[in-house]
Design a protein that fits this description.
Two copies of one chain form a homodimer. With about 280 residues, the first copy, chain A, is of the alpha/beta class. Helices cover about 40% and strands about 15% of the residues of chain A. Chain A has ten helices and eleven strands. In chain A, helix 6 crosses helix 10. The radius of gyration of chain A is 19 Å and the shape is globular. The N and C termini of chain A lie far apart (about 40 Å).
């Protein structure tokens, strides 16, 4: 009998705890504030930004949206980042991806001061995560670890298999799991015999972005299955990477889509904004 | 029939090629220079530093050794790094590890300007490697990739298993192998059933530092075996992690110790010094 990992419920609890933190900061006269830059008019991005704004409202974080049209130059984007870097009232800066082709997103991420890099995409934060130092961990991997911990799922000594090696999920998640003493394997489009590998997984995470890429025959009995995918099926419904109905019968724990990893990502963003605010104001704990 | 991967011979070839690069720089009036900081009097460290100095001499890189006694303060160490960061004649800075307890080596590594960080230990360089950007790759993992390439060993689509998750070998090597499209697993002291995992490896790398930790029963027939270990046995002889005499009979390729990974590490350090010199002088290729 599988257990559903309710990311929505858990994220709600985390946001409530963060609200207490935010309130304490306000008593000290400090108001946490997140700036989100959105370039162009990708409709999915707009939804993501709206959800982030909603979460800010729940936690008591101020929110400033910077909307740039799709023919914004790289110079302009960088100068806006510099401005936000220098503003004392802004604690966290997030550049919503994707940005229009022709703009270099890595250069932009690198320009965001590491102290305000609440997405954890600046190479300094990426490097610190890899070295095992305290840092801003990117929100999706961080949310996954929090979910596993909330369910008391043992990570140490377990075989964790990640499908997908993106810079925003697969690679940082590998570091997070390694830091928690899992044995970690990372698979991707060039992996041969992927089924043989995924069937060794005690914890299986799919972060590919393809419907039904994880089928029941790829999953070991009793595995924990985490679905990072966010895909629209032919009926326009949001679904994950995992063939949920069949895989759930083999899993011990499984995340739904929607209501699994997605809400956790936003909760951890809020966590990082509070962390950044404390860091910038020299508040320990 | 196994083939020995001769790191000594390959490193010689690489250093010869680098000498040509160094000579070209000299024609432009640019003399590449490496500064090595050694704190305390660890005898193994002294040998390593001597070998690096010898390699500099072979390639035509100037070498400056900064010897600090073991009760040097952190402030002093950082101020010396700052000085070297600012000196125009110094292109690469290397802090020999270990440094005495009480000094924070991570803080020191982080202080070395990324442009002069020829060891690739600054979080910016670590992060860039993880993101897949051009950067200074730490020398041992880089040397291993060069060895595999020199032997025309296919990496893409192969199962690579790394034993050991250190910041200087295991973790960056994982990134390097992933960037070359291998499916990568990283094992460590908390891994259970390690034998089952290592036997799936087409390419097996041990970076633990324990004699005979890799035995023949852990190795798949025809595997490529790379031994990063540098251990002294009870006769005072330098040996690796791999039970060489038995494992070689199963391997397709295997590195010896000494004469395998060790010389490659130093060759790649020279590579990084030349790269840093070019970068600082805006020379492309």
């Amino acid at each position: 009998m599988y257990q559903l990992i309710d990311g929505k419920e858990l994220s709600k609890r985390i946001k409530e705890e963060l609200k207490i933190e935010a309130d304490k900061l306000k008593e000290k006269g400090i108001i946490p504030k997140l700036a989100v830059i959105l370039v162009g008019d990708d409709s999915a991005s707009k939804v993501y930004v709206r959800n982030k704004s909603k979460a800010c409202n729940e936690v008591g974080v101020e929110f400033e949206e910077i909307l740039l049209n799709s023919n914004t130059s790289m110079e302009k984007l960088l100068s806006i980042i510099d401005e936000l870097n220098n503003r004392k009232d802004i604690n966290g800066i997030l550049l919503q991806s994707p940005i229009p082709k022709g703009l270099n997103i890595q250069e932009a991420f690198e320009r965001i001061k590491w102290e305000k890099d609440v997405d954890g995409f600046n190479p300094i934060n990426v490097g610190r995560l890899m070295i095992g130092q305290d840092t801003f961990i990117s929100c999706t991997p961080y949310g996954i670890i929090k979910m596993l911990e909330a369910c008391d799922i043992e990570i140490q000594g377990k075989n964790a298999v990640i499908i997908g090696r993106s810079n925003i999920v697969g690679k940082p998640l590998m570091q997070c799991l390694l830091n928690k003493n899992a044995t970690v394997t990372i698979c991707h489009s060039k992996t041969k015999n992927i089924k043989e590998i995924t069937r060794t997984a005690d914890i299986l995470i799919s972060a590919v972005g393809k419907i039904n890429i994880v089928t029941a025959d790829m999953v070991k009995d009793g595995a924990v299955v985490i679905d990072v995918g966010m895909n629209k099926n032919d009926k326009g419904k949001l679904v994950g990477d995992v063939d949920f109905e069949k895989v759930k019968e083999k899993a011990s724990y499984i995340t739904p889509v929607p209501g699994g990893v997605g809400p956790m990502t936003i909760a951890m963003l809020m966590n990082n904004v509070i962390k950044a605010t404390k860091l910038q104001n020299n508040i320990i704990n």
